[in-house]
Amino acid sequence: MKRIANWAATTDTGTQAASNSGSGLSARSRIVFVVVAGVDYRYELRRGDELVATGHLSREQPLAVGERLEIGGKHVIVRAIEPLLGKHELRLVVQLVRDRI
Question: Measured between alpha carbons, how far is residue 55 from residues 2, 40, 42 in Å?
Answer without folding.
Answer: 16, 11, 6
